[in-house]
Amino acid sequence: MSLFADAKVEPPLLAARIEDYALIGDTETAALVCKDGSLDWLCWPSFSSGAVFAGLLGTRDHGYYKIHPAADVAILSDSWRYLPNTLIVEKTWESIDGEVTVTDFMPPRGANSDVVRIVHCIRGTMRMRMDLALRFDYGCTIPWVEHVDHHMRAIAGPHLVVLRTEAILRGEDMRTVSDFTVQEGESVCFVLSYGSSMAEDPKSFEAYTSLSDTEQFWTEWIAQGHYDGKPEWNEAVQRSLITLKALTYKPSGGLVAAPTTSLPERIGGERNWDYRYCWLRDTSWTLLVLLYAGHTEEALAWRGWLLRAASGTPKQLRAVYGLNGERLFNEWNVDWLPGYEASRPVKVGNGAADQTQLDIYGEIVSALAHTPVSDDDLWAGSVRSLVGALLDYLSTIWRNPDSGIWEVRGERKHFTHSKLEVWTAFDRAITSYDGHPKTHTPEQDARVECWRKERAAVRKDLLENGFDKKLNSFVQSYGSKNIDASSLRIALVGFLPADDPRMLGTLKAVEERLMPDGLVLRYDTADGGDGLVGTEGAFLACSYWYASVLHLAGRTTDAEECFERLLALRNDLGLLSEEYDPKEMRMLGNFPQALTHIALCQSAIILADGNGPWNGKVARKGYTEEGV
Question: Does the structure show a pLDDT above 90 at 93?
Fold first, then answer.
């Protein structure tokens, strides 16, 4: 049902630019709030549930929740910020007559999920407007709404949403609105709570107490960690760590790649994907970042998630899982949503879950190898069993083609990066085994000896087929002439030192063929080899990898200049999306993107020569084997 069915023209698309949004969350789901005061995206009750506010991908018809000065108030200035070391965003508007702040946050999840918005007048008076349109199931279901003065109750099937506030509420055009005035020193609070329509209403609570508790939660969490890099990059790293924490799903320990779906990689294009699931690759890399920063609790929770998700035979291992380790979810198009700036299709689910991606083995084993294990660790035996089973199975399949790190929708190939991570899987397991000689048995020694032979075979295969001597560069896949930025990771995992002539040649090829505007593209999409139509923006994670390899190759000044240029692309709250359009100077892709913030942290560690899993000594050391 459309609220605009009788209108002669469709309502305008609602969303602002991607960089004009802030993230708030309760470690089970997250919302995007625009700097104009409109909450345009929220999935309830979890990251991958149906959106109750889907205006980000459509119109006012598809759900939003806005608090803003009244339309006829002349605003002189506005600003916003995160409260230091938190996920609490504060927006400020100033007019001739007054100054007001709206503080938005989601308390860490208790029995229910809540969005709290506190309007506070700092000076004078300000007339305000609250506008709420609940639309379940990605904007297609209008709930049954009841108003009782300061209380609103909305039901749609299993969903229940309750709004409590001091302001007077009323219905208007299938929405709930409130016009109110705040005076100096006065606050008006709005608490929006989600629950089951088959249970009692969510309990009420005091908004300012919840604000204090939420601030304490985030400041205490960030204080548990440490970052020993350059002080001038501390704020960027801390914000990235908080963002990664916000993208973790606390009940299971999984981590979503992003809280959004279908934000386009090119405005108006079809490269629109649902990232509200757990990629083994992203989660494994996040683990390494959090471990380096001292957040071991999340690392151990992820390990538990992995062991549950990967249970069964290694043949069943998937690249993408649901929040709780679910394996079955379909990719389908939400046909009633027009898409962000008319970029269609809008997708739910992700077909990459059914792909073979060989690189995930290296990322999993590397992460597990760095996870601390104590003598009384009940999971230790399970970890060893999992790694052993995965490597034994990998020995039988690594010579097959796959869909690669970029999850191409075209034919499978022998991707160079995939073979690199196969090598990493064997290498990290062997290194870990060699580091604990007291636990060796003859049977284990024989098993690891087979892995050594596989490691040598993978290395020989990659160097012979993944490097093009005429191009003097590693290429995207065996026999290809395409350059791929994932080849930069050859130096980051220690396969070759960054100053090896082959890596220097790859750096040059990336600069000449994948950096037309100073940022790094993943690969050239023009040949259509990925099975998709159209182009995409510069991939920010690849750009951070480039900065890291520059440093490891000895080009430290270039590396720092590149890193600083990338930091300048963050929005004014420190958040980054998946991609960037240098010509239009705007963000592209899902937002905020875990992989981008992972790469930012990784690069900051490398450029500071920190003691982490990618520090300069490890990466420069590389790996050598007789005969290669």
Answer: yes
